[in-house]
């Protein structure tokens, strides 16, 4: 896989034009953490081009929408926002750029041209690094630009990055997906799986550690198949600290001084090999919360979803991890109302939820995505049934979380203190290894520290704690 180094000259050219103009940008990011990580890179480039951030659309000279298309509601959100920004374009010629996953869908770009023709730049998921060049062209020629590539982008290295947080950081380790789950649009908009080379990842993590970051989340659509495509196709993997798989990557990052916690999302159950389970067990910094997307608990539905595991295999994997990794906990993603889902299928999903006892469940109502096999299936589930099932699942999940939360009371949890509580400036907030929010009293010097906290009370979405003596 070829690597692309960013053309920093384009950044410099735009920066020069913008110098001293006190320009501002507004960015809206939709969707998953991978998109957020892309936005951090966009912000890094944009700030080097002499724009400063504003939260106010009306103040902006440049507006960027980084879109998602995994579910339908993101589309409604984008079109709503575009309606809102039209007046700014007309009044002060604000530059409007729309990028991300949704722009890889041809029917969406067509709709934009038809109904919102005032945009300046559309860019896809494979052309992020060309944003400065696109912006330069707009500023100098005012001609609308479409910079969308259908091919699988290469691995892009060297983009400046402006991170949202100074304790926790995300590091993308791979892009794209080869799984083609039948409900999912991702393989069509993010292209084929390709991994970053170990050296680049480890250097990024080391530099984050040097800047004081404590927690790293490794990101990818299918993290536990990191470097698999490269291994299977004999693509050269640059040798670096013996890393040639996800398990060896976890072990290498675990050795980096300064980093205290490692998380990763999302793995695929079918690729959860024993070496990864052993690495989670052995690496003290790897959190013992495993996000293990279930999607459905019914073997029939899993087959139609093309997930390549059965209900029994999923449960066996959970049991294996529970046996091998002390204190392991789980979170998951579940879709309700996939085409053909019967009452019995849905009950299988409830059954898995009961058996595993998830720490957190991200629940989604099935959303038809143009171009996916799921969209063409004839046995779509009526909206009303989908919503009813969603509510039943939610009720079960919340009742389980309530019980789980009570089990925390009286225990001592290692909590990474992240900052002041959003709702109460006098309190601090942090997270347990299992990603539960903990609110506590304490002084600001504790921010960024991993400390033992005694849990004293529980609420649905957070726990209360006190510094353990
Ligand atoms: N409808 C509903 N949920 C979906 N997801 C992916 N595609 C769809 C869809 N078409 C969910 C899956 C995935 C999560 C990121 O989004 O649960 O794991
Ligand atoms: Fe979508 Fe399945 Fe790939 Fe996840 S593994 S991104 S759900 S196709």
Keywords:
single chain; 469 residues; alpha/beta; Rossmann fold; Transcription Regulator spoIIAA; 6-stranded parallel β-sheet; 5-stranded mixed barrel; 22% strand; globular; binds 5'-deoxyadenosine; binds iron/sulfur cluster
Task: Give a structural overview.
It is built from 15 helices and 21 strands. It is an alpha/beta fold and 469 residues long. The protein folds into four domains: 3-147, Rossmann fold (3-Layer(aba) Sandwich); 165-286, 2-Layer Sandwich (Transcription Regulator spoIIAA), CATH 3.30.750.210; 288-407, Transcription Regulator spoIIAA (2-Layer Sandwich); 412-467, Nucleic acid-binding proteins (OB fold (Dihydrolipoamide Acetyltransferase, E2P), Beta Barrel), CATH 2.40.50.140. The strands form six sheets. The chain has a six-stranded parallel β-sheet, sandwiched between helices. Strands 17-18-19-21-20 form a five-stranded mixed β-barrel. The longest helix is centred in the last third of the chain and has 26 residues, at 383-408. The radius of gyration is 23 Å and the shape is globular. The mean pLDDT is 94. Bound molecules: 5'-deoxyadenosine and iron/sulfur cluster. Iron/sulfur cluster binds at residues 177, 179-181, 184, 186-187, 221-222, 268.
